Amino acid sequence: MSKAFSFEILASEGNARVGRLITPHGVIETPVFMPVGTQGTVKAMIHRLLEEIGVQVILSNTYHLYLRPGVEVIELAGGLHSFIGWQKPILTDSGGFQVFSLSRRRTKDNRSGVRVLEEGVEFRDHLSGSLHFFTPEKVIDMQEVFGSDFIMPLDECVEYPTTYTYAQASVERTLRWLDRSIKHKKREDQALFGIVQGAFFEDLRRYSAMATVERDLFGYAIGGLSVGEPKEIMYAMVEVVCEYLPWQKPRYLMGVGMPEDLVECVARGIDMFDCVAPTRMARTGTLFTSQGKINITNEIYKKDFSPVDEECNCYTCRNFTKAYLRHLYKADEISAYILGTVHNLSFYHKLMKDIRTAIKEGRFESLRRSWTV
Ligand SMILES: [Zn+2]
């Protein structure tokens, strides 16, 4: 591992921590929320707007970039940072989650579009239906071409619910795939995370966490959650896993991120989050406010000339009213999606900043209580 990467805990309260994560593309203050830029762009955003909001790191999806524009184009461009024109840190996932979720979804005849083999995973893509094969080595190769700062090994995401026997076999396979990924990785300027799986079985989660930690990686991710299970179960799994992760290394909870989840999972020791919720919900008119979620397209906002959130200082709230935003959404104007996304991402950015400040000042538990009442 290159010296360009380090992680330091600056303050803590209970299991909640504030950290400084150093990467070749800049410093990230944790806990951090990473907006999802599936196709190398955060939907309805341009990078300049992300920078104005204060976004520190974005996530991009290997599966989607592999399908479009293709790895070769990104290689010719000199890597992902250069191709998309974003010079701050990038995390790429392994593509595993999309392979399993999108391919399963597209089958019309009730057959799975995915075949899991020891060598890797065979799947039909969601665009053309053509056949592809991902191995742990191929997934590392692609991410080495991308040059993303944080890279993820191929893992298997099992469905919810699943059987114990299947989940157990899957955990073992994910560990074998992790070993192959570690062995295959060549670049020194990227940090590989291990992914803890184990579905919703506490002992499998514990075993997966301990075995993954034995591999001594830069950081650890928790995968396979927020796939339809009740929240209490998700929180319980995060709690079990965090107990077994080393305190001094970064922890990333994959694909989980409603505001209350961020608060609850920071409380359990998570440092990094990603989720499509704030951006996807913005595009359907659901906006987060300090008083809860609102749907801006609602009739009650037709003549409401106040900002979306009195406590928000984002570009949208500083300049526009609910009535105007509602009008833009109703007229299906592109600016509606932009202004809604600016607000939701600003709301998330402020929440994470408030969380960090609260932990530093020893009042995180009181912030947490304000979210649970
Ligand atoms: Zn706002």
Automatic annotation (TrEMBL):
First-tier enzyme category under EC: transferase
The tRNA-guanine(15) transglycosylase-like domain, residue ranges: 15-371
GO CC terms in record: cytosol
Source species, domain of life: Bacteria
Chain intervals for the UniProt region annotation (RNA binding): 255-261, 279-283
Residues reported to bind Zn(2+): C312, C314, C317, H343
Cofactors: Zn(2+)
Co-factor binding details: Binds 1 zinc ion per subunit.
Binding site for substrate: D93, S94, G95, G96, F97, D155, Q197, G224
Pathway the protein contributes to: tRNA modification; tRNA-queuosine biosynthesis
Active site: D93 (proton acceptor), D274 (nucleophile)
A GO term, aspect molecular function: metal ion binding
Record's function text: Catalyzes the base-exchange of a guanine (G) residue with the queuine precursor 7-aminomethyl-7-deazaguanine (PreQ1) at position 34 (anticodon wobble position) in tRNAs with GU(N) anticodons (tRNA-Asp, -Asn, -His and -Tyr). Catalysis occurs through a double-displacement mechanism. The nucleophile active site attacks the C1' of nucleotide 34 to detach the guanine base from the RNA, forming a covalent enzyme-RNA intermediate. The proton acceptor active site deprotonates the incoming PreQ1, allowing a nucleophilic attack on the C1' of the ribose to form the product.
Family in the record: Belongs to the queuine tRNA-ribosyltransferase family.
Name assigned to this protein: Queuine tRNA-ribosyltransferase
Species this protein is from: Hydrogenobacter thermophilus (strain DSM 6534 / IAM 12695 / TK-6)
